[in-house]
Amino acid sequence: MSYPHRDLRDHLDALERSGLLIRVREPINKDTELVPLVRLQFRGLPEDQRRGFLFEHVTDARGRRFDASVAIATFASSRQVYATALGADLSQIGATWQRALGAPQPPRRVADAPSQEHRYVGAAELDAIGGVDAFPHPISTPGFDNAPFLTAPCWVTRDPETGDYNVGVYRGMIKGPRRVGLQMDTPSQHISVHLAKARRLGRPLEAAVIVGAVPALALASVQKVPYGLSEYEVAGGLMGRALEVTPALTVDLDVPATAELVIEGRIDPDHLEPEGPFGEASGYMGPRTTSPVLEVTAITHRPRPVVQAFISEFPPSESTLMRRIGFGQVYRRFLKHGCNIDSVQDVTFYEPATCNMMFVVRLSNPSAGQAWQALHAAASYEPSMGKIIIAVDDDIDPDDLEAVVWALSFRTQPHRDVRILEHRLPRLDPSEPQDNRYPAATASAMLIDATWGRGYPPVSLPSKPFMEQARQRWEELGLPALSLREPWYGYELGEWSEENRREAALAAIGRYLETGARLATMGGEDGAT
Amino acid sequence: MSYPHRDLRDHLDALERSGLLIRVREPINKDTELVPLVRLQFRGLPEDQRRGFLFEHVTDARGRRFDASVAIATFASSRQVYATALGADLSQIGATWQRALGAPQPPRRVADAPSQEHRYVGAAELDAIGGVDAFPHPISTPGFDNAPFLTAPCWVTRDPETGDYNVGVYRGMIKGPRRVGLQMDTPSQHISVHLAKARRLGRPLEAAVIVGAVPALALASVQKVPYGLSEYEVAGGLMGRALEVTPALTVDLDVPATAELVIEGRIDPDHLEPEGPFGEASGYMGPRTTSPVLEVTAITHRPRPVVQAFISEFPPSESTLMRRIGFGQVYRRFLKHGCNIDSVQDVTFYEPATCNMMFVVRLSNPSAGQAWQALHAAASYEPSMGKIIIAVDDDIDPDDLEAVVWALSFRTQPHRDVRILEHRLPRLDPSEPQDNRYPAATASAMLIDATWGRGYPPVSLPSKPFMEQARQRWEELGLPALSLREPWYGYELGEWSEENRREAALAAIGRYLETGARLATMGGEDGAT
Q: From the list A142, A174, A176, which residue is nearest B462 (CB)?
């Protein structure tokens, strides 16, 4: 099956056909109203009711009206929306990613580039329209953010030595008509490597910032892929065909031909200045950072461009949903194949923990030592990931926090099953501030083995035949539709005797008084009777 | 407002009037079908859709049909059902309890006792009808339980020395027509104290087992009240009038006059024998215990009695909901008033943790040391309660497990904020079995301080005015009804400067480029620009 979207607009049409797009034609102020409106669905609707939003009549706090629309929450407001962006069935998300990563395709230059239909080159032309501020970039966290930030820009740069492409999503602060602040989390991010090399070579780093790319490129750019593998090629793998690109006007970079908006420019690697604060996915405002700036040299765009933004900040959000899907794949593969722990079934990340801080590794009949091997290995993949890591058995549904609480309650003894790991790396975590700022100097993790690992008595629910029969009667009686959670019938866990089974079988055919009579003859621990 | 129910039947009528009772007229087998059917609603429906069940046509595995009905899940399948049993508004549950405990009333003997309309006295009359087995006591966990157990019986006994009454709910195994096994969790339970005294005095303990009492008595009997305070009097406090009682026929005890079924008998304190196993509220089958037995001397009942049972076993259940409400009251009072920790707001128990194993103490601006004082005090109230105890701030909604995960993720560092407490008492906890049985020899607890306790950056949501305005626009746009979770707007937590506030205010009126220009002049930490 080939990828169904040629550009962002095709994807928005697909969402609309599936009832997954809310089109708002009423005027909306991008500085004060737009993100708060969409935010409400993340605090007030269950995931399966969340949709993408397309705002067609965007205004701002200065009374401007934009000849552009804003698409937000259109990539990952729910798993169904994400699957649509990926061009896959819901159940095929993991398989689609595995297939794409195994078959990258180099991009292909094309002559027809809608992304360059409108062109503004040089300071005079840019300043005449207002530069990057001529487009409706929304303020994400009105009341706390100090500017609009690009939340879904794909930053395209090339390794100054090898020429290899990298495309990554890093937020961009709108600082002036020709100035966009760049903020990267850690020095291991690929654009940081490019910047460090440019600094060593004593020259600026050229960059193009893509807004409103075909979804395959954006999804490839937020996924962690190995250094040197271009996200252009990964996007090609996802699409099953080459990404269409065209040369940029003022920098030596190819840019996507069907993007909505392209901002070209140069980054002086020696210039840093204050940036932010910005509302982070942790659920807290991040700190003011000291960061580089893109000096804009040109802007090109499609007619009436669609400015696409991610809704991030307080979890859950598009960011955390994309992480939940991506991290689950990456960690499962690492533990099961990289570390050879075959009993690992899946790894589940939690959006209220921003998918960084807490996750659950589910194992199926782990052999001796494997639960702790998996816990330590999971902690070792990335030092900033996993403040609380829990191992559970495969009868626990990790998507159900209540099931995890049940496992923690009755399958652990803290002194035996909990260990604290020091010397971790904090990341956007205000719980250990240094000089009233983070990242902090020290952080730690807690590993919890909540697997039973020995004989346990059966789960105290009627056994499967009785519950199956009850479900049938429930329906016959016309009672309200059920949405059953695991476990919904009892099962053995190693500690249950033949005598127990015999007595239960007798009871179910009404012969329990025979058991009662027999027990009377057995006497008690006091020896009396 | 006086208590609206004179007997169980009044309560069932009240439930039915409120749409909270499902009346099943079709035949239902009490040994194999009845509890599994009701169990489904606890695994497959949200709490507010759960109802009580009244089965009017009860059969059993031996093909008997009973001239009696079974009421189950009629006291605490939801908070609304519980409030109806308590005769209170949902919001007044706590206040009603406090008022009742402050005004106990002694019971009053009456001449008219429907509970004694039918009478069977002595072995011959009892055996002729089948004794206790003549009534439809359901099997709770078919497939694992070895008999029907009374799950909601109120055991009435008197202190052999002082004559003081105690009424407690302890499960009863149907062992024979004239034999009911009694199982108590711990030696501190009041009936255990009576039994120990009877053993010392060398005489049997007289008891009456009440099935289908007026709800006020059952609710009083499951609540922990001080030794020596009779639950008959607490029931009077709850009702605002004396409980109607009448002398039993064969034992020196007064029994409720409007109960559905009364089983009189004697317990030989020197005779113990095997009992159980039974599906426990922990979610696991409990162990076979060695326990005393009631030798039945008489049975009396109302015409066509309603055999009332609790649905317990796997959480959530009626048991866990009753505990959640009761424990929250008891612990809040202990911490706030007993331990003088005024910042304690509430204590929340979790049904998947059987309301024993995990709870959250919420504090409002605790002063230095109070979070840990509250954690240690909460652990010290009862050594078997609280395997995971968490302190949170008052902006965390403890009923929302996702909010608790968020607090654990970003308001703790495990090495600093987690402590393990050894030498705890395990109780119905299979995680530390001794000789393949529990209770075990050792257990531990984990205390977690997830309060911020210092300056934190603001929560990354748009501030309240923007979210309020968005909510209004959401409604104007006719979008789906919201059910907002806390937090749904951003707020400050101590770490936010005047400069931050000024910049955010400028941004919201569209003057963010002024901020961008100012930042450009400030330079970065590399000193360059």
A: A142
Rounded CA separation A489/A491 (Å): 7
CB contact under 8 A, A470 and B39: yes
| CB contact at 8 A, A147 and A139 | yes
Residue B99 C-alpha, separation from nearest chain A C-alpha, in angstroms: 33
* A512/B146 touch (CB, cutoff 8 Å), yes or no: yes
Q: Give residue A227's pLDDT.
A: 78
Q: Which of B310, B300, B301 is nearest to B279 (CA)?
A: B310
Q: Which of B31, B283, B509 sits opposite A460 (nearest CB)?
A: B283
Cα separation, A269 vs B528, whole angstroms: 10
**B25 and A CB contact within 8 Å:** no
Per-position DSSP letters for A55-72, written without gaps between them: ESSEE-TT--B-SSEEEE
Note the ipTM here: 0.93
Nearest residue of A to residue B403, measured between CA atoms = A352
Residues in chain A closer than 8 A to B40 (CB atoms)? 467, 470-471, 474, 482, 484, 488
- What are the φ and ψ backbone dihedral angles of A73, each rounded to 5 degrees? 65, 20
Residues A528 and B270: their CA atoms lie apart, in Å, by: 6
**Yes or no, beta carbons of A141 and B173 under 8 Å apart:** no
Residue numbers in A near B524 (CB within 8 A) = 271-274, 290-291
Phi, psi at B270, each rounded to 5°:
-95, -5
Task: Please return the burial class of B17, using the count of CB atoms within 10 Å of its CB with bins 0-12, 13-18 and 19+.
Answer: exposed
Please write the tens of the pLDDT for every residue from A307-324: 999 999 999 999 999 999
**By the 8 A CB rule, do A445 and A387 touch?**
yes
Q: Give the C-alpha separation, A194 to A288, whole Å.
A: 23
**Based on C-alpha coordinates, what's the Rg of chain B?**
28
Map A246-300 to HEC letters: EECCCCCCEEECCCCEEEEEEECCCCCEEECCCECCCCEECCCEEECEEEEEEEE
Given an 8 Å threshold on Cβ–Cβ distance, is B524 in contact with A403? no
Q: What is the pLDDT of residues B128-176, one digit of tens each?
A: 999 999 999 999 999 999 999 999 999 999 999 999 999 999 999 999 9
Q: Give me the half-sphere count of Cα atoms (radius 13 Å) on the Cβ side of residue A169.
A: 25
Task: Give the other-Cβ count within 10 Å of A158's Cβ.
Answer: 19
Q: Quote the pLDDT of residue B137.
A: 98
Q: Examine the pLDDT at B434 and tell me if it is beyond 80.
A: no
Cβ-Cβ pairs closer than 8 A, A with B, add up to: 508
| Residues A391, A405 contacting (CB under 8 angstroms) | no
Task: Provide the residue-wise pLDDT of chain A in tens; the chain has 529 residues.
Answer: 689 999 999 999 999 999 999 999 999 999 999 999 999 999 999 999 999 999 999 999 999 999 999 999 999 999 999 999 999 999 999 899 888 888 999 999 999 999 999 999 999 999 999 999 999 999 999 999 999 999 999 999 999 999 999 999 999 999 999 999 999 866 677 899 999 999 999 999 999 999 999 999 999 998 877 777 899 999 999 999 999 999 999 999 999 999 999 999 999 999 999 999 999 999 999 989 999 999 999 999 999 999 999 999 999 999 999 999 989 988 999 999 999 999 999 999 999 999 999 999 999 999 999 999 999 999 999 988 999 999 999 999 999 999 999 999 999 999 999 999 998 888 888 887 654 444 445 789 999 999 987 789 999 999 999 999 999 999 999 999 999 999 999 999 999 999 999 999 999 999 999 999 999 998 765 434 3
Whether B175 contacts chain A with CB within 8 A: yes
CB distance from B525 to chain A under 8 Å? Answer: yes
Q: Which residue of A has its CA nearest to B314?
A: A460
Interface of B with A in 407-466 (CB under 8 A): 408-418, 420-422, 429-433, 436, 442-446, 452, 454-466
